[in-house]
Design brief:
binds iron/sulfur cluster; mainly alpha; 5 helices
Length: 101
């Protein structure tokens, strides 16, 4: 009979195998608890179907990870004025705001 740990590892191996090669290392290292930043990166990539540009262009300002989501180009998550500038179009009640806001 398998232990809980063995069952979890099997499930994670399936998840890693189902992850595109470009993100497999990030997901695997998140499971290995190498860093919280990599776990956030893995979660965001999973959320958008592993399209890195979609993480950067995410408009889900109410997502708790929004301000922590990784930048794959440039310098880290937006903060301060940059973050406000980024989300302000979605805060004015514009009905054309993308889903997830
Ligand atoms: S910040 Fe965006 S990409 Fe990251 S988990 Fe939230 S909704 Fe998904």
């Amino acid at each position: 009979m398998k232990t809980e740990e063995e069952r979890i590892n099997e499930l994670r191996a399936v998840a890693i195998a189902a992850t595109p090669a470009s993100a497999r290392g990030i997901v695997a290292s998140a499971y290995e608890r190498k860093s919280r930043a990599r776990a956030i990166k893995a979660f965001c990539l999973t959320c958008v179907g592993f399209k890195r540009a979609d993480v950067e262009n995410c408009t889900a300002v109410c997502c708790p990870l929004f301000v922590w989501r990784p930048r794959f180009v440039g310098s880290g998550a937006p903060e301060g004025d940059e973050m406000i500038e980024e989300v302000s179009p979605y805060l004015d009640g514009d009905s054309s705001a993308p889903a997830g806001v």
